[in-house]
Amino acid sequence: MSLAPSHPPAAPVSAAAAPVLEFRNVEKVFRNGFHAITPVSLSVQRGEIVSIVGPSGCGKTTVLRMAAGLTDVSRGELVSTAREQAYVFQDPTLLPWRSVQSNAELVAKLKKMPKAQRRAAAADALETVGLSSVASSLPRQLSGGMKMRVSLARAITSSPDIMFLDEPFAALDEFTRARMADVLLDLWRGNDFSALFITHSIHEAVYLSHRVVVMAAHPGRIVRIIDSPSPPSADAARDTSALADLEAEISGLLATAHKEA
Ligand SMILES: Nc1ncnc2c1ncn2[C@@H]1O[C@H](COP(=O)(O)OP(=O)(O)OP(=O)(O)O)[C@@H](O)[C@H]1O
Ligand SMILES: [Mg+2]
């Protein structure tokens, strides 16, 4: 992960504008009666990347699925002002018989974006993720990291206001994973989206985020929401020592959360 910015300034995150997503005392009780999430309150501002970390089973995916409207909220209120949303999961789920370009266009096509517009948007996205030269290749000709880049390009081509990412880089080797974090930030700098990003990597969470949400289990809850002392931006170098301190703080919180789990 490089720390030097190389792009024009991104739109500033404005705390005054309405959040793109807001949880107000949201709870989740599954049909079997299991109370997975006790009241959580959290907002995601426009242009903000918020990461969620926490022990396995604490409810990270459940929070994300509620945010994305994939599962109901049991109690409380979830307000979304997003017009378009996109999902990126650990499995890139590319169609094997379609080219990289065609896969990158797919979600935009399903959303009825005009052909010329989605072609251009997909070509732009593939260029940002460094895959222009393999646009006509098939997925089986790509490495795992390249497939994940296509998955990110496909998500961004539909012009989402918010992206939901559930451990998208967990299956990749460490080096590829670090590069993918930079690819995601490159996309973020060039496109105006917010993101809710789940990861088991504290380093990744700190590197990618404006804020980090730390969850604990039994019951599933938020124990802390921490503003990054040096969030991603285009016009300032990162303060690596402040980020290292944040990593240490989150490690401590998670060690406590794991002990309780
Ligand atoms: N459909 C369901 N019905 C009942 N319980 C469920 C259901 N889905 C998830 N759970 C339970 O809710 C809790 C939270 O699950 P969730 O998948 O959100 O955790 P997670 O933090 O994403 O875990 P991991 O890090 O392993 O992905 C778990 O105890 C899980 O067993
Ligand atoms: Mg999960």
What is the average of the pLDDT values? 91
Say which CATH homologous superfamily of the domain at 17-83 and 198-261 is assigned.
Answer: P-loop containing nucleotide triphosphate hydrolases
CATH topology of the domain at 17-83 and 198-261: Rossmann fold
Distance between the termini: 32 Å
Shape summary: globular
Report on this structure.
This protein has 261 residues and is of the alpha/beta class. It has a domain at 17-83 and 198-261: 3-Layer(aba) Sandwich (Rossmann fold), CATH 3.40.50.300. It has helices at residues 60-67, 100-110, 115-128, 144-157, 174-190, 202-208, 240-260; strands at 21-29, 35-44, 49-53, 75-80, 85-89, 162-166, 194-198, 211-216, 221-227. β6 (162-166), α5 (174-190) and β7 (194-198) form a beta-alpha-beta unit. α2 packs across α3 (115-128), α3 packs across α4 and α4 (144-157) packs parallel to α5 (174-190). It starts with 20 loop residues before the first strand and ends with a helix.
How is the secondary structure organized here?
Elements: E1 21-29, E2 35-44, E3 49-53, H1 60-67, E4 75-80, E5 85-89, H2 100-110, H3 115-128, H4 144-157, E6 162-166, H5 174-190, E7 194-198, H6 202-208, E8 211-216, E9 221-227, H7 240-260
Parallel strand pairs: 3-7, 3-8, 5-6, 6-7
Antiparallel strand pairs: 1-2, 1-4, 8-9
Bound molecules: adenosine-5'-triphosphate and magnesium ion.
